[in-house]
Write a structure and sequence with these properties.
The protein has 10 helices and 15 strands. The chain is an alpha/beta fold.
Length: 414
């Protein structure tokens, strides 16, 4: 207990002034119950020297004269506040001094009753044990916070590196392919993305396009996209172009075989677009149905097939559609369902999905067909940025708009 500890009263005064008389100090000591304090003295110049060790558990009495240098006084107050030391200041003008003293420092007149000063010092001494305990708790919290800050900084560096590696292995910009107009929107929700897309030329006439959305967010989903990118095969060993349903079937079996934890799933859509004829053959795996948008309306290209990575005997069907002049194919991930909140509703409803995104994607495709695909993608990106909550989007956003430049025939479902 603090009562068993012998208290120390450190009397501080400027070297230019003698400080309180011995009789005044003796009255303070006599008013203190046993064990009575030990009195020590120090000059103001000594106390402001950081090399001077203030006795542990000491209660400070600063005897202030009007001629004392204010710079020394400010330095002393800085040390008292920084180390949270108990102090009573006895001043000739206590009202003026009280305006400059830090919080927690008591200011009284030098004419104050020594017995009252003794009570104040004793109270500060008894309280200091709790203050020291709180200081220890505070230092422990600060140490813990510093450790957490270091871990967060390290994690941020690792996530930044992961994003760089992912962007190198899985580009977020569309390629330039002769005979194909292509617009790409790729907006990860965080450092890394759980969405994956690929558009590649298969032969002189055909282009393969693939979009997958790993279930989940963050690093686990991003790692799954790397597995998918490595596993998808659009041609056989002889170099022949594979049917979309065959491509998804092989990818699904590969993912099931590697899905040892039972939690690696993804949706996906893969198609082959003939740039000469405008025919697109598409297969899907639990993914939002692509849309064909043109002057004569909108058509959803629906296919059957479960998520990738669940059933090794899953069956994937494919659908053929023909793009005419002015038609565009839109392939997108499910993150757009909450990308366009209805601002007129309550805060809870703002987080709910709605069907407005379909009209927005249709407008995006129409804008592409009516102007530059690149400029349209920039405008659509600005539209996304203007939405409520766009700085903290809840899901990755990926959309592809494809159109053959030399389509010669009108669109018709095959």
């Amino acid at each position: 207990m603090s009562g068993a500890r012998r208290p120390i009263v450190l009397v501080i005064c400027s070297s230019a002034h003698p400080g309180p008389c011995p009789g005044w100090v003796e009255q303070v000591v006599c008013a203190w119950p046993d064990p009575r304090p030990t009195i020590r003295r120090a000059t103001l110049e000594t106390v402001v020297d950081r090399g001077y060790q203030i006795p542990a558990g000491a209660v400070l009495v600063l005897w202030h004269e009007l001629g004392d240098r204010s710079a020394l006084l400010c330095q002393a107050f800085d040390r008292v506040a920084g180390e949270q030391l108990p102090m009573v200041v006895l001043a000739g003008e206590p009202e003026v001094m009280a305006r400059h003293a830090p919080a927690g420092v008591l200011v009284r007149s030098r004419r104050a009753d020594p017995a009252l000063v003794s009570v104040m010092l004793r109270t500060l001494f008894e309280r200091q044990a709790a203050v020291e305990s709180l200081k220890g708790d505070k230092n422990a919290v600060l140490h813990s916070q510093a450790g957490l800050a270091h871990q967060m900084e390290q994690m941020q560096e690792e996530l930044t590196l992961a994003a760089q590696i992912q962007s190198e292995l899985i580009p977020r910009r569309g390629p330039t392919i002769e005979g194909l107009d292509l617009a790409v929107i790729c907006r990860p929700a965080g450092y890394v993305s759980g969405d994956l897309f690929e558009v590649t030329r298969l032969d002189e006439e055909r282009v393969g396009f693939f979009l997958a959305d790993a279930v989940g967010h963050g690093v686990p989903a991003a790692l799954l996209t790397l597995l998918i990118a490595r596993s998808i095969k659009m041609k056989d060993e002889a170099g022949a172009v594979l049917e979309p349903c065959v491509v998804l079937d092989a990818l699904n079996r590969e993912m099931v075989e590697r899905n040892v934890t039972g939690s690696r799933f993804a949706t996906g859509v893969y198609g082959v677009l003939n740039l000469r004829s405008g025919e697109a053959v598409i297969a899907g795996a639990g993914h939002p149905a692509p849309m064909v948008v043109g002057s004569r309306g909108v058509e959803r290209v629906t296919t059957e097939g479960p998520l990738l990575g669940i059933f090794d005997d899953a069956v994937f069907t494919q659908q053929a559609v023909r793009l005419g002049a002015g038609d565009a194919l839109v392939v997108f991930s499910d993150g757009f369902e909450s990308a366009f909140p209805r601002t007129a509703e309550d805060a809870y409803s703002l987080r709910l999905t709605n069907e407005d995104y379909l009209e927005r994607l249709m407008d995006f495709a129409r804008d592409c067909c009516g102007s530059s695909f690149e400029a349209s993608a920039m405008r659509f990106g600005e539209t996304l940025d203007a939405q409520l909550g766009s700085l903290h989007q809840t899901d990755d956003l990926t959309a592809l708009v494809l159109r053959p430049r030399r389509a010669k025939v009108g669109r018709e479902a095959a």
